[in-house]
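Lab meeting tomorrow. Look over both lines:
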Amino acid sequence: MSKKVVFSQKPQKKLVQDTIDQWVFGDKRGTDEAFSELSQQKKQPEKLKKLTFLIPVSLHEQLKIYSATQGKPMKDFIEKCIRDILK
């Protein structure tokens, strides 16, 4: 008795190949839809890296109070501050 296992191809590869073929050969039918679908598939969340650092207790308390009054996690506030500094 043998068991049959079927592996399917990754759907993204076919979509990419079809989109490239349409662009190369000048086939304009459906390229906008294909490109928008492809771009939606590629939008994946950015990988995260853990960052650990020490701050004074009083500063931590102030940050915690501020984030609670804003209704947002402390992580969001710290990330925004870092992004603003790096602009």
Remarks:
- The mean pLDDT is 79.
